[in-house]
Amino acid sequence: MRAAGLTVHLNDSHGHAAGNAVVILTPAQPAADSAPAPLPATHVIDQKDETFLPYVQLLRPGDRVVFRNSDDTRHHVYSFSPIRKFDFVLRPGESSPPLQLDQAGIAAVGCNIHDHMISYLFVSAAPLIALSDRSGNASFARLAPGRYTAQVWHPQLYPGQPQPSQPVTIAEGAGTQMLSFTLSLIPDPRMPMDRGRLDY
Fold this sequence. Notes:
Layout: E1 4-12, E2 22-27, E3 42-48, E4 51-53, E5 56-59, E6 64-69, E7 75-79, E8 86-90, E9 99-100, E10 105-111, E11 118-123, E12 129-131, E13 137-143, E14 146-153, E15 165-170, E16 176-183, H1 192-195
Parallel strand pairs: 1-16, 3-6, 5-11
Antiparallel strand pairs: 1-13, 2-12, 2-14, 3-4, 6-9, 7-8, 7-10, 10-11, 14-15
């Protein structure tokens, strides 16, 4: 069987591309032989212009994250998430020790000095997972033909609403197929100067 691809395009309700959306693709029938788990990786969350970069970071269980302060002011980074609680102060130019995240889940990260600063660590063992780019596209390659469910998470989805999902059938030899979502999002919680400079 020849593998195919899928591009998932995400807009908000105003027709703007929705970057930083996590898309998980789940096959109706999981493959009999799963690929070996990738080796743990270390990711860097930078703090620049009083903004966490990136806004959303994908991680696998066992990955590590380092927070770096590239600002000229002090930051107090913390998370109360059940998957990993931490709390430390970073002076200008400092980096945190690597923090390992072993559990799947979502950790919201803030700064106790600058309330507008927020970032999300999305930890998942899902084999088919992607983050949408500035154009609102999340891409999957080399998909086996069959039925899948695409589920979307975004940090600005309205609280209490179910995560958007859609079924999709990947046809053999069909090339790259398209799937679209329109997300109902709350306003960007970051400071106004970032809204004009950053994606959702």
